[in-house]
Amino acid sequence: MKSTLLCSSIFCLTLASYAQPNWEKKADFPGDGRSATSSFSFNDFGFVGLGYDGEDFRRSFYAYDPIYDTWTQTESLGGAIGEGQERNTAASFTIGNFGYIATGQSGDPFLNDCWKYDYTSNIWTPEATVGGIDRRGAVGFSVNGKGYVGLGQDATGYKNDLWELDTATGTWSQQADFTGTARRFAIAFVIEGSAYVGTGDDGGFKNDFYEYKAATNSWIVRTNFGGSPRYSATGFALNGKGYIACGYDTTFNNQTDFWEYDPDGDNWIQLADFPGGPRANAVAFTVDTLAFFGMGYDTSFYYDIWLWGDTTDIIIQDTTIAIQSWQNADAAIQIFPNPITNYAIVEVSIPDYHGDLNITIIDMFGRDVSSSFNVIKTGFANGKYQFKLENTYLAPGNYQFVVADKKVLGAQQFLVL
Q: What is the number of helices (H) and of strands (E) in the chain?
């Protein structure tokens, strides 16, 4: 089997030019409508899971591929040993190739466990429990390779403490208390080494706003959030700005308003409303220069997902080398089932092509792992090649099936469980 040179299979979206951002409806979350889910993201995928669907707390997780606008179910929180770990209102953050889930609420109303998800292997492992007492409705964020969980609610009331996870030692240490009042259901996002925390519920609706400087372990008061006081809003950071959308406010209704925060000017401006309708406890994640927002609850539990960003001129490219224009790939590739366990069937459609194909399996680090698969050509008819893909000893994770002759004709990502 001839190898095809690819330097990386981690893809991202880059923008040729930055125009006025807008909202665009994307593929719905494939699970049930849910509120108070959790998310983390990497350079090429966003992950959404957990939450409450009106009847049950959930622990399932799904990965979203923004290139193909598709969802793939991944390992549920805790994996094989995670039975009983379903929850909502959990804190989450990303460090390197790991996503973290901590605290939350389930049959036990207050939790303090922490789980680490390995993006490269699709495996969850338990981490040290979060410092302080069990809690729900906390904020989570990461700064400079450290993870943070703070605020929220425990059995005695609302909290304002903050705890830092050192992944090198696997230990939590208490940091400077949040300067504002103790509260739950606040938002948090990170911009250039600082975390920004605000809004929430301290027994009333809040719109105050603070910056946490991790380097000095200190809090600074910033300009109040520009919208009405509220809790259960959703925040994210993108391209050096912060954003807050929706939430439950002083009118005792869920909202659709959408606000942008500029940390340089310490000011807020209101943008066009979120078009998906009012809601609280929505979810957001970012992939490269695009944000994805949705789900949550108003009069029902939602499963819609919306993209926010400049969608006018998206260029899809490999993070190391642009190996081809994916919109104009010569070969259309289908892999089913996907994710796979022991084997899959692959169909490669190349009209008017009757030559020999080079098949290569590439892992997310750009390594040729073809020897871990047995690729068997099983047929050719009407411009479609069919292969059987047998997994011999490849570890769980994300991979690419690459088809080439003298150039790359097409590729398809797949997940091994």
A: 0, 37
DSSP letter for each residue of 320-376:
S-----GGG-S-EEEEESSSBSSEEEEEEE-TT--S--EEEEEETTS-B-GGGEEEE
Checking if the pLDDT of 326 tops 60, the result is no
Residue-wise pLDDT for 32-41, tens only, equals: 899 999 999 9
Domain span at residue 147 reads 18-312
Is residue 122 scored above 60 in pLDDT? yes
Identify whether residues 230 and 307 lie together within a single domain: yes
| Beta-ladder partners of 117 | 99, 124
> Is there a single domain that holds both residue 267 and residue 178?
yes
pTM score, whole prediction: 0.74
**197 and 66, same domain (yes or no):** yes
CA dist 172 and 189 (Å) reads: 20
Question: Domain check: are 50 and 199 in the same one?
Answer: yes
Are 252 and 264 in contact by the 8 Å Cβ rule? The answer is: no
Q: Residue 250 CA to chain centroid, in angstroms?
A: 30
User: What's the start-to-end Cα distance of the chain, in Å?
Assistant: 24
Q: Which residue has the tokens 């390197």?
A: 96
Residue 9 in any domain: the answer is no
Residues 163 and 114: their CA atoms lie apart, in Å, by: 12
Residue 5 lies in a domain: no
Residue 4: pLDDT over 90: no
pLDDT, tens digit, 9 for 90 and up, residues 55-99 = 999 999 999 988 888 899 999 999 888 888 999 999 999 999 899
Task: Give the Cα separation of 278 and 245 in Å (integer).
Answer: 10
**CATH number (domain holding residue 279):** 2.120.10.80
Q: Do 362 and 250 share a domain, yes or no?
A: no
